[in-house]
Amino acid sequence: MNLGATEIIIIAVVVLLLFGAKKMPQMARSLGQSMRIIKAETKGMREDDQADVAKAEAGQPVAATPPAQLGVAKAEPAPTAAEAENAELKRQLAVEAENAELKRQLAASREQAQKNAG
User: Fold this and answer.
1) Cα separation, 42 vs 3, whole angstroms
2) Number of compact structural domains in the chain
3) Are residues 107 and 50 in the same domain?
4) DSSP 8-state assignment for residue 64
5) Spatial contact of 11 and 28, defined as CB atoms under 8 Å apart
6) 38 and 22 in one domain?
7) What is the pTM of this model?
8) Contact 79, 87 (CB under 8 A)
9) Which residue stretches belong to region Disordered (predicted)?
10) Residues 42 and 9 occupy one common structural domain
């Protein structure tokens, strides 16, 4: 199945309409973070394998990774107070921006209703 330029453009427009322009940057950011985590985990696994090979070549016993640790993501450090406050302020700003947009839409719909009634 070959996708041409027109099909890709149509798919992009449909995705944009479904998810909206506001959600796209957030989704891209989330995808980027996921890719970074996957990259870091695969790099860590590769380094572990190389270390095991080096130990085996040196004649040292290689310890097996306990099953409980397989596939477990590394814990991120807890955010500092400043980071938590920054995140809260960003959340509040986003809520205020959304409220302003809703107020604008409400005013526009009231204006339209008045035009239709009068």
Assistant:
1) 30
2) 2
3) no
4) P
5) no
6) yes
7) 0.36
8) yes
9) 42-64
10) yes
* Max CA separation in the chain (angstroms): 91
* pLDDT attached to residue 72: 53
Q: What is the DSSP letter of 2?
A: -
Token digits of residue 59 = 């004649």
Phi, psi dihedral angles at 59 (to 5 degrees): 90, 5
Same domain, 14 and 62: yes
5-60 tens-digit pLDDT: 889 889 888 887 887 777 778 888 888 999 999 999 999 999 988 888 888 787 76
Domain that holds residue 48: 1-73
Half-sphere exposure of 87 (CA within 13 A, CB side): 7
Q: Give counts: helices (H), strands (E), the chain.
A: 2, 0
Q: For residues 11 and 27, state if they share a domain.
A: yes
Residues 6 or more apart in contact with residue 79 via CB below 8 angstroms = 87
In this structure, what token pair is assigned to residue 15? 């995705």
61 lies in the same domain as 15: yes
CA 7 to chain centre: 26
